[in-house]
């Protein structure tokens, strides 16, 4: 038995039956990281040794009854934009290459409370800006299915680590598709929760009104379990919503009979790869077979959503990233004499080209004289997009689309930023409207690369999309049929 | 043209630090002072990933200020980011309010230069956070950042350009300060920077449209504000008279040279790129919430004044003077409660204490002693332990070293001599030494009595009971 092949719920069963121990789990992952990390380069910081020490402490706590959580001793990987006390949080940037936060993000506190063990911090596009993890200033993460292709982004390290069995599950963050798109590229499950379901405190902000933390897992049950830990109001984040606690695992009914699935035709048109389209159509047929009602609808928003997204996200980013000024923490240039020099040189040296591009774009759209034409208009478009979704959800339970127009592409294959931005065309509208979305694998293309299906729910309907995803997963069992091959 | 052909137009943007216990977006203390960077946390230091949580007290205080200045209170308000780079601004944006301030369209009443009542309109009052402080060369070379003040809550009150002289501007600011003190939203200590004003000044010929304004930032004393307005309005008139034009710009007032200096012109004006802060939810206030604050507003100066006139029979002028400052008014009430004599308490505050404040260029909030100490001193006079003359000396002492007045009197040996035998001895001694005065008195020159009493006081270092001295001299002289 290879422990690292198991899902978390399988690990829990084996722990319960005393077939394995917590130390054995940590050891297995430590060995796996030693074996495969050099192929994938998913980690910015590896904490395997620390994890082994921690696992002994956790075992003690379990034995003397201090820890009762079923997650005690389960390892996890964390995207490197979530603050971890005493451990570097780089955001994939030279700017924060040596930044150590003196506090834990709220979700990190929640993991700790359950007794989960941090295996390391995972690579990402710099400040979560990108769709391939190529924008990381730290290293180049590879897709475990084919090491010549990107893992997607920005949570590329998280998705690749889960796919390569370097961690049993991981946390990602999603501003325009950053959990779902890499999950799709790496053949794993990734969920972006409704805006406000999960606390953002301690998540280094890219675009505050769009960012959400979510799980990246091997299967849907694990996804529901991890969401149980993450969801809930946090007094430190006033945008997090106070609502009754839901057990997402209980929502997994393995039944979609009578459920209404909307398929927006605009998401299957030009620009969508034929093989992707074909697999999605197979999935749609499967849902029909399982008793769901599928209806084609019109949801003509993708292009407007992409435009509104880049205006709003960049505007917020230009302000959020102002604090990286070389004064209190982060990179400070050695060059220059004046205050202006410190600002100019520190930011010029510390930020990569994509981050600079978005700061400049964001600064522009907020400038006086342009604010109404861009930022204000984008906010109006945002409301319209939310209304259009609302309209569809009046008569449907979920919306089904591809997660990405293509499967994972090769390194350096996108010749312009705009081409890269189009990789998010299926996912951004979900963030713009603040809705929950999940990506699950639904097959592979001719080259053996995974294809992702996106299921979008109405606000706080994570239960519905998890059940719809789970039912498909149970009926098709992607994991039993396909495995990453680390093709060189 | 003559200066009198011009009209001066002034508007004030007044920043008052709120006296909440904690900062506006985190739970750090707001106390003034403290070692640099000891009153701060990851949130007010703008560490990555941290988020602001609005202190509800700040909203409450701002609503109080709005209600006390006759503003309309917004039911739907929000926070906006004002973006600019400066080392004292850790997030590189200040969380403020742009297009939806909490309070709008208010007014306060002041006296104009002719002594008539005048309404000065308030455009708005909004909430925002203070920046930190830069220490230049204070701790060795270079500039160091102290973030203790970063995130201390402020309200900014913006007046309409309704003020027409430096005197009006001063009265308006004093009025605003007094209101904020009364409703206890700010301690308004100008010397600690908890009340500061940006002063906008323009001039125009009477009957013509307003001129271009200049702005003097961060003024924190009444005296400088008055001087700066006078200087700047005269400078503008001179420029216009010489055929020049006024540039819209930010100026720095230099108190030492008594001049303004150009800081920034309109062309280099910053574009603050205001936009709604996505980290904070909208501020929605219910009718009950606002009504509740309204019902619990403390007594305002106008109503205290009325009470002083009816209950304590103070003259309108005296009542006005005392209630102009909450510190004086509180001192008055406390003193009166200790000594039981409202009239005497008012007299001491309005004569000797006000004189000393003037001499020392101090504001009432800087009075070092307490109402209990002043009340006890008045008691000592009332029960004959000391004379009023000694009382003045005790007061001077209280300004230097505020301890129990009885302790001062004992330590200095100032207890009044009321012993008949001792007084008689002094009287006889003085009479013996001044035969000419006795003759003068007997010849009808009443002034001679005063001289003799004065001599006796001098001999006892002011400690003899003056009434007893008087009586005893008269008795002896009539013998």
Write a structural description.
- The complex is a heterodimer of chains A (488) and B (479).
- Chain A is built from 16 helices and eleven strands.
- Chain A is α/β, with parallel strands linked by helices.
- Chain A has a domain of 278 residues: Amidase signature (AS) domain (Amidase signature (AS) enzymes, Alpha-Beta Complex).
- In chain A, helix 5 runs parallel beside helix 6.
- The longest helix of chain A has 24 residues.
- Chain A is globular, with a radius of gyration of 21 Å.
- Chain B is elongated.
- By secondary structure, chain B is α+β, with helices and mostly antiparallel strands.
- Chains A and B meet through helix 9 of A and loops of B.
Secondary-structure topology with pairs:
The complex is a heterodimer of chains A (488) and B (479).
Chain A: H1 8-16, H2 22-40, E1 43-46, H3 48-63, E2 75-79, H4 106-114, E3 117-122, H5 156-163, E4 169-174, H6 180-186, E5 189-192, E6 212-217, H7 220-230, E7 260-264, H8 274-289, E8 293-297, H9 302-320, H10 339-350, H11 353-366, H12 372-395, E9 398-402, H13 417-421, H14 428-432, E10 437-444, E11 450-457, H15 462-476, H16 478-481
Parallel strand pairs in A: 2-3, 2-4, 7-8, 7-9
Antiparallel strand pairs in A: 1-3, 4-6, 5-6, 5-10, 9-11, 10-11
Helix pairs in contact in A: 2-3, 5-6, 7-15, 9-11, 9-12
Chain B: E1 6-17, H1 56-68, E2 72-73, E3 76-77, E4 80-83, E5 93-96, E6 103-111, E7 117-129, E8 133-136, E9 143-146, E10 153-159, H2 166-182, E11 195-205, E12 214-219, H3 222-241, E13 249-254, E14 259-265, E15 275-276, E16 283-284, H4 287-295, H5 301-311, H6 316-323, H7 326-339, H8 342-360, H9 371-382, H10 388-400, H11 405-412, H12 420-433, H13 435-442, H14 447-459, H15 466-478
Parallel strand pairs in B: 12-13
Antiparallel strand pairs in B: 1-10, 1-11, 2-6, 3-16, 4-5, 4-15, 6-7, 7-10, 8-9, 11-12, 13-14
Helix pairs in contact in B: 2-3, 5-6, 7-8, 7-9, 9-10, 12-14, 12-15, 13-14, 14-15
């Amino acid at each position: 038995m290879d422990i690292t092949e198991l899902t978390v719920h399988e690990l829990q069963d084996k722990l319960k039956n005393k077939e394995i121990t917590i130390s054995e789990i940590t050891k297995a992952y430590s060995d796996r990281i030693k074996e495969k990390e050099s192929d994938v380069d998913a980690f910015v910081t590896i904490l395997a040794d620390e994890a082994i020490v921690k696992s002994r402490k956790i075992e003690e706590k379990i034995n003397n009854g201090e820890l009762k959580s079923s997650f005690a001793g389960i390892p996890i990987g964390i995207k490197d934009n979530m603050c971890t006390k005493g451990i570097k949080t780089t955001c994939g940037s030279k700017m924060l290459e040596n930044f150590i936060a003196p506090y834990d993000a709220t979700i990190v506190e929640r993991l700790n409370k359950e007794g989960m063990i941090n295996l390391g911090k995972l690579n990402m596009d710099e400040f979560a800006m990108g769709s391939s993890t190529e924008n990381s200033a730290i290293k180049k993460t590879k897709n475990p299915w084919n090491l010549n292709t990107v893992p997607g982004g920005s949570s590329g390290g998280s998705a690749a680590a889960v796919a390569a069995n370097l961690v049993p599950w991981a946390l990602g963050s999603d501003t325009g598709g950053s959990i779902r798109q890499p999950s799709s590229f790496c053949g794993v499950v990734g969920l972006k929760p409704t805006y406000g379901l999960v606390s953002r405190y301690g998540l280094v902000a890219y675009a505050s009104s769009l960012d959400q933390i979510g799980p990246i897992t091997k299967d849907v049950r694990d996804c529901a379990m991890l969401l149980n830990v993450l969801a809930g109001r946090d007094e430190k984040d006033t945008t997090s919503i106070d609502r009754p606690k839901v057990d997402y695992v209980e929502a997994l009914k393995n039944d979609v009979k009578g459920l209404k699935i909307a398929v927006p035709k605009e998401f299957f048109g030009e620009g969508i790869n034929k093989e992707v389209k074909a697999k999605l159509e197979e999935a749609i047929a499967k849902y029909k077979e399982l008793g769901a009602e599928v209806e084609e609808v019109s949801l003509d928003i993708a292009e407007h959503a992409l435009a509104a997204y880049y205006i709003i996200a960049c505007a917020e980013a230009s302000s959020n990233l102002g604090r990286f000024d070389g004064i209190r923490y982060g990179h400070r240039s050695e060059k220059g004499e004046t205050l202006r020099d410190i600002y100019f040189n520190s930011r010029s040296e510390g930020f990569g080209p994509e981050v600079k591009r978005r700061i400049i774009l964001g600064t522009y759209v907020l400038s006086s004289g342009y604010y109404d034409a861009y930022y204000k208009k984008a906010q109006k478009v945002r409301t319209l997009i939310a209304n259009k979704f609302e309209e569809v959800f009046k008569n449907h339970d979920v919306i089904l689309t591809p997660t990405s127009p293509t499967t994972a592409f090769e390194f350096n294959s996108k010749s312009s930023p705009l081409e890269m931005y189009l990789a998010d065309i299926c996912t951004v509208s979900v963030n713009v409207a603040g809705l929950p979305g999940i990506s699950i694998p639904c097959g592979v293309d001719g080259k053996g690369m995974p294809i992702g299906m996106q299921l979008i729910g109405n606000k706080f309907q994570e239960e519905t999309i998890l059940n719809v995803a789970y039912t498909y997963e149970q009926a098709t069992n992607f994991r039993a049929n396909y495995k990453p091959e680390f093709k060189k | 043209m003559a200066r009198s052909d011009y009209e001066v137009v002034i508007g004030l943007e007044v920043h008052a630090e709120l006296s909440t216990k904690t900062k506006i977006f985190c739970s750090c203390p707001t106390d003034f002072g403290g070692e640099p960077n000891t009153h701060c946390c990851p949130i007010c230091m703008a560490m990555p990933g941290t988020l602001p949580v609005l202190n509800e007290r700040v909203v409450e205080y701002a609503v109080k200020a709005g209600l006390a200045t006759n503003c309309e209170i917004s039911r739907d308000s929000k926070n906006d980011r004002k973006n600019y780079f400066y080392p004292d601004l850790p997030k590189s944006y200040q969380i403020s309010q742009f297009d939806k301030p909490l309070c709008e369209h208010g007014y306060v009443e002041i006296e104009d230069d002719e002594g008539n009542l005048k309404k000065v309109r308030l455009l708005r009052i909004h909430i925002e956070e203070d920046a930190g402080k830069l220490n230049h060369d204070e701790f060795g070379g270079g500039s160091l950042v102290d973030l203790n003040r970063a995130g201390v809550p402020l309200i900014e009150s913006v007046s309409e350009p309704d003020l027409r002289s430096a005197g009006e501007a001063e009265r308006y600011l004093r009025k605003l300060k007094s209101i904020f003190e009364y409703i206890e939203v700010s301690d308004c200590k100008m010397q600690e920077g908890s009340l500061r004003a940006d002063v906008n000044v323009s001039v125009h010929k009477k009957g013509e449209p307003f001129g271009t304004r200049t702005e003097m930032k961060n003024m924190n004393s009444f005296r400088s504000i008055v001087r700066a307005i006078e200087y700047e309005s005269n400078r503008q008139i001179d420029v216009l008279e010489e055929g020049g034009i006024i540039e819209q710009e930010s100026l720095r007032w230099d108190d030492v040279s008594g001049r303004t200096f150009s800081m920034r012109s309109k062309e280099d004006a910053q574009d603050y790129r205001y936009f709604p802060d996505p980290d904070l939810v909208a501020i929605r206030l219910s009718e009950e919430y606002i009504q509740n604050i309204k019902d619990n507003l403390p007594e305002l100066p106008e109503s205290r004044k009325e009470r002083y006139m009816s209950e304590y029979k103070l003259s309108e002028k005296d009542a006005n003077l005392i209630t102009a400052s909450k510190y004086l008014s509180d001192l008055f009430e406390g003193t009166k409660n200790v000594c039981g004599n409202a009239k005497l308490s008012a007299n001491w505050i309005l004569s000797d204490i006000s004189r000393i404040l003037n001499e020392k260029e101090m504001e009432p909030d800087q009075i070092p002693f307490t109402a209990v100490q002043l009340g006890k001193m008045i008691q000592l006079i009332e029960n004959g332990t000391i004379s009023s003359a000694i009382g003045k000396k005790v007061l001077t002492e209280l300004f230097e070293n505020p301890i129990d007045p009885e302790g001062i009197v004992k330590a200095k040996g100032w207890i009044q001599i009321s012993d008949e035998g001792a007084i008689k001895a002094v009287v006889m001694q003085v009479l013996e030494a001044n035969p000419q005065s006795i003759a003068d008195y007997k010849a009808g020159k009443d002034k001679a009595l005063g001289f003799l009493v004065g001599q006796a006081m001098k001999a006892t270092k002011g400690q003899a009971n003056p009434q007893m001295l008087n009586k005893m001299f008269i008795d002896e002289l009539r013998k």
